[in-house]
Design brief:
about 120 residues; alpha/beta; four-stranded mixed β-sheet; globular
Length: about 120
């Protein structure tokens, strides 16, 4: 089997394993936040910070969200890390975890290379 055929077979297998109900639940939560005038905060560390920044741009441009990635404001993030420590650098966002505002965490498990989207509404 050639590379392209193998790639497409693997892609199809991955798509077939997607949890449709979970995707619908995330889409419904996102729609409720947008319709309610809430804000979307997307958090990421390392490479996931880049993904968070890119996602914020797409949510703003394509979906009309008021969206933010704290890592895009390097001055504030590093000031929090300097003053309060890395372990609490994102904790100020807990105040925004309400039905009106959605905080999403992008996680990459290095050992298994699985990407997860963790949201709390």
């Amino acid at each position: 089997m050639g590379f392209v055929a193998e790639y497409l077979n693997e892609t199809q297998a991955i798509v077939e394993r997607l949890d449709v109900e979970a995707i619908e639940a995330v889409a419904t939560a996102l729609a409720a936040v947008r319709l309610g005038g809430g804000r979307l905060f997307i958090l990421g560390v390392g490479g996931s910070a880049g993904h968070a920044s890119h996602a914020v741009n797409d949510f703003r441009k394509l979906c009309g969200f008021e969206a933010y990635a704290p890592t895009d404001n390097v001055s504030e993030l590093t000031a929090r890390i300097n003053d309060e420590g890395w372990s609490v650098s994102y904790t100020h966002l807990r105040a925004h975890e309400t039905p009106e505002h959605l905080v999403c965490r992008l996680l990459l498990e290095k050992k298994t290379h699985k990407t997860a989207l963790n949201t709390r509404v």
